[in-house]
């Protein structure tokens, strides 16, 4: 009898994909990779297909199809990506960065597939719609972000009403100790050097601006049905404690671990059971001391927008996410300065106040208009 879980991995060639493949590689008796996707990297996709003999393969950007040499047939385009997510399986892992991951992730839960989600932009932009669909289809959503996985593991659903507040920790990124007056000189190559995590360029810049934590505030509110007033962010440079749940009886449950995406991925794929990953053991005495302090909102004003998007009806999470993607891309292509990322987002939020979306199509339309507005603001700075 084969008890292996059938897994579909969206975004197999990115940083989340790399961590997931490491996990699957060392636990082949537990998992069966039945589908993979990539956007551009056809060569690495081919290597993955050949190593794991994956039967369902999608390259969403057809331009690079000639570079594919995998043993199994390749499907092309965004529509194929959506169809891949609909294949009956135990769980779909969404490791696609950005709003492009919205449709396949929604397609997965729409057919009742469980979803392990590392794409925070999806829940930020369409969280309520996703959760309603997941309940309707009895599909579970598991967070893969280390912070949200930490809260998930510490949250006792039987005592949810007794939760006082939660704490999301943040490493502070590469510019935690950089003087504010030097921020205007920050270059893309500096911003993508994260001191703790190995990530893609976009999410590394988000960590440097702390916009990633703003998005995580919104995501936590959606995932755990917690008001913005009950979400705290604390700077914790060592990033050993990933999240804390504070209960009204004074108890605080914390999740600790060395920074490694393998653990939250394994939790998402196996919950409520746990795997023996044979990872490096943690000794509290060897760590010696852990430090914590409040965020500096002068240096990282984007962080405030996470709470603002939840509290202010004129601050749309969709607009926040879309304008940030445009601004980060403009910074990486050296069209704007690092400090202008926040300005672009703030100005877009102030010039566009959409209605609350009722469908995925509404979300995409708001996202599209937001990007146009943000792109115009970038052009004015050129």
Tell me, rounded to a whole number, the average pLDDT: 92
Radius of gyration: 20 Å
Strand proportion: 5-15%
Oligomer: single chain
Strand order of the largest sheet: 4-3-2-1-5-6-7
Helix content range: 40-55%
The global form is globular
Total number of strands: 11
Helix count from the secondary structure assignment: 15
Distance between the termini: 63 Å
Largest sheet: 7 strands, parallel
Query: Strand pairing plus helix content: what structural class?
Result: alpha/beta
Overall tally of structural domains: 3
Q: SSE order, as H and E?
A: EHEHEEHEHEHEHEHHHEEEHHHHHH
**Poorly predicted tracts of residues:** none
Set out the fold topology.
Layout: E1 5-10, H1 15-25, E2 31-38, H2 42-52, E3 56-59, E4 74-76, H3 78-86, E5 91-94, H4 102-110, E6 114-117, H5 120-137, E7 141-143, H6 146-154, E8 163-170, H7 188-191, H8 201-209, H9 211-224, E9 231-235, E10 241-247, E11 252-256, H10 262-270, H11 284-287, H12 304-311, H13 317-332, H14 340-351, H15 360-379
Parallel strand pairs: 1-2, 1-5, 2-3, 3-4, 5-6, 6-7, 8-9
Antiparallel strand pairs: 8-10, 10-11
Helix pairs in contact: 3-4, 4-5, 5-9, 5-13, 8-13, 9-12, 13-14, 13-15, 14-15
Task: Pick out its properties.
alpha/beta, Rossmann fold, Rna Polymerase Sigma Factor, Chain: A, 3 domains, seven-stranded parallel sheet, globular
Would you kindly provide a written description of the structure presented here, covering whatever features stand out?
This protein is α/β, with parallel strands linked by helices. It has 3 domains: 5-143, NAD(P)-binding Rossmann-like Domain (Rossmann fold); 148-311, no CATH class; 315-382, RNA polymerase sigma factor, region 2, helix turn helix motif (Rna Polymerase Sigma Factor, Chain: A, Orthogonal Bundle). Helix content is 43%, strand content 15%. The protein has a 7-stranded parallel β-sheet with strand order 4-3-2-1-5-6-7, with helices on both faces. A 4-stranded mixed β-sheet has the order 9-8-10-11, with helices on one face. Strand 2, helix 2 and strand 3 form a beta-alpha-beta unit. The mean pLDDT is 92.
């Amino acid at each position: 009898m084969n008890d292996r879980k059938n897994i579909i991995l969206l975004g197999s060639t990115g940083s989340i994909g790399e961590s997931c493949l490491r996990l699957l590689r060392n636990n082949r008796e537990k998992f069966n990779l039945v589908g993979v996707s990539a956007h551009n990297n056809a060569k690495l996709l081919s290597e993955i297909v050949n190593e794991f003999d994956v039967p369902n393969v999608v390259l969403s950007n057809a331009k690079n199809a000639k570079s594919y040499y995998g043993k199994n047939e390749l499907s092309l385009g965004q529509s194929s990506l959506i169809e891949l997510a609909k294949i009956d399986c135990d769980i779909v892992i969404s490791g696609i960065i950005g709003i492009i991951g919205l449709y396949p992730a929604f397609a997965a839960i729409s057919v009742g597939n469980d979803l392990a989600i590392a794409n925070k932009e999806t829940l930020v932009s369409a969280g309520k719609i996703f959760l309603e669909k997941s309940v309707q289809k009895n599909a579970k959503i598991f967070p893969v972000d280390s912070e949200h996985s930490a809260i998930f593991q510490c949250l006792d659903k039987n005592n949810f009403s007794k939760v006082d507040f939660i704490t999301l920790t943040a490493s502070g990124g590469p510019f935690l100790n950089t003087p504010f007056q030097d921020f205007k000189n920050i270059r893309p190559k500096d911003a993508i050097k994260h001191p703790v995590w190995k990530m893609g360029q976009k999410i590394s810049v988000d960590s440097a601006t702390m916009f990633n934590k703003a998005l995580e505030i919104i995501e936590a509110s959606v995932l755990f049905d917690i008001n913005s007033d009950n979400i705290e962010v604390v700077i914790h440079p060592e990033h050993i404690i990933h999240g804390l749940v504070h209960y009204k009886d004074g108890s605080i449950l914390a999740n600790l671990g060395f920074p490694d995406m393998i653990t939250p991925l394994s939790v998402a794929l196996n919950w409520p059971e746990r795997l023996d990953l044979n990872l490096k053991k943690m000794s509290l005495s060897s760590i010696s001391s852990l430090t914590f302090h409040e965020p500096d909102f002068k240096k990282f004003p984007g962080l405030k927008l996470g709470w603002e998007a939840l509290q202010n009806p004129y601050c749309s999470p969709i607009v926040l996410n879309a304008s940030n993607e445009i601004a980060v891309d403009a910074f990486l292509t050296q069209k704007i300065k690092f400090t202008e990322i926040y300005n672009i987002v703030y100005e877009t939020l102030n010039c566009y106040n959409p209605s609350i979306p009722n469908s995925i199509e509404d979300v995409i339309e708001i996202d599209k208009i937001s990007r146009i507005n943000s792109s115009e603001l970038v052009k004015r700075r050129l």
